[in-house]
């Protein structure tokens, strides 16, 4: 999105992660964000949510500073789930932005439950990852890449069970497993075919993505579109995904789908490994279709922002 729309990307990191320091970290981030907006004096400000109180702060600053910059709220799916959806005035704040971006049709339907109409809502699906593959997978390889955040919607126990049921497959789990509520399970007793990488660099992740045979993406929550699935499509890789409505809508015949149980996961992976060439071709085809669709959606958003810009200059 940054390359296409040409905005300057600013990341304001937290200053603390514990429950006691987080409120002070948020305040520090608010101040730094507003200071940057004041210095740069932009025509358009893109803000990613959550946190869902950031729209309130930005709208208040625009009102009291008398600046006329437009606001685009780029809403991550979790904006519309607890706890963030419970922030008072969320719907009020979003309705006062110039555009509200959501990234799949399921979330677009969810926004109506909080009273957000269609006049500012923009569906901009996640673009397939722009991946440069420097290596290729060995045709005899049976490595499965499993990118994890170890959050509550990921059925980690089922992945462990699947690894035990399929000792001929190597499971490579990325991410910080110490965040997992059952982290003690990773210290001992894991099957030898389940490998943990912890945090890795982007270059190392892309190498694993290049050389793996199948990408496995799992969630227990509807409406989650899985970044890993877009990365797999961008890399033209076979996929096994959780059987949810939104994932079927987005990835269709380019993936095999499973229930979040060890037996179902192991069985789907065996099938994907057997059909890896066919699934890889379908993933490449889907990448082309999704690129065309994303470009059309992005063009429509760009046009609407240009129209708003002309109107503001006329005023």
UniProtKB/TrEMBL annotation:
Source domain of life: Bacteria
Q: Which InterPro entries match?
A: Glyco_trans_1, Glyco_trans_4-like_N
Task: Describe the location of the Glycosyltransferase subfamily 4-like N-terminal domain by residue ranges.
Answer: 19-123
In this chain the Glycosyl transferase family domain maps to 154-276
Is Calcium one of the keywords UniProt gives this record?
no
One short Pfam name that applies is Glycos_transf_1
Which positions make up the signal peptide? Answer: none
Keywords linked to the UniProt accession: Plasmid
Against Gene3D superfamilies, the record matches this protein to:
Glycogen Phosphorylase B
Can you name this protein?
Glycosyltransferase family 4 protein
Recorded source organism is: Rhizobium rosettiformans
């Amino acid at each position: 999105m940054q390359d296409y729309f040409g905005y300057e990307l600013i990341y304001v990191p937290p200053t603390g992660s514990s429950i006691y320091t987080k409120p002070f970290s948020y305040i520090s981030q608010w101040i730094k964000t507003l200071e940057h907006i004041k210095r740069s004096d932009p025509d358009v400000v893109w803000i990613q949510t959550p946190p869902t109180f950031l729209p309130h702060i930005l709208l208040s600053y625009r009102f009291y500073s008398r600046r006329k910059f437009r606001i685009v709220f780029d809403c991550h799916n979790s904006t519309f789930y607890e706890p963030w959806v419970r922030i008072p005035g969320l719907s009020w704040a979003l309705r006062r932005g110039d555009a509200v971006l959501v990234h799949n049709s399921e979330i677009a339907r969810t926004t109506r439950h909080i009273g957000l109409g269609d006049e500012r809502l923009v569906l901009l699906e996640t673009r397939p990852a722009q991946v440069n593959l420097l290596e290729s997978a060995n045709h005899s390889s049976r490595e499965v890449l499993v990118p994890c955040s170890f959050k509550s919607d990921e059925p980690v126990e089922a992945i462990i069970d699947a690894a035990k049921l399929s000792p001929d497959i190597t499971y490579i789990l990325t991410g910080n497993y110490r965040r997992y509520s059952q982290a003690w399970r990773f210290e001992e007793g894991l099957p030898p075919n389940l490998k943990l990488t912890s945090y890795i660099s982007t270059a190392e992740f892309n190498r694993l993505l290049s050389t793996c045979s199948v990408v496995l993406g799992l969630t227990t929550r509807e409406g989650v579109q899985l970044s890993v699935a877009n990365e797999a499509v961008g890399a033209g890789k076979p996929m096994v995904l959780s059987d949810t409505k939104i994932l079927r809508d987005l990835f269709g015949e380019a993936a095999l789908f499973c229930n979040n149980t060890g037996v179902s996961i192991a069985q789907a992976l065996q099938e994907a490994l057997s059909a890896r060439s066919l699934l890889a071709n379908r993933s490449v085809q889907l990448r082309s279709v999704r690129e065309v669709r994303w470009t059309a959606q992005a063009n429509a958003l760009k046009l609407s922002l240009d129209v708003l810009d002309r109107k503001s200059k006329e005023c």
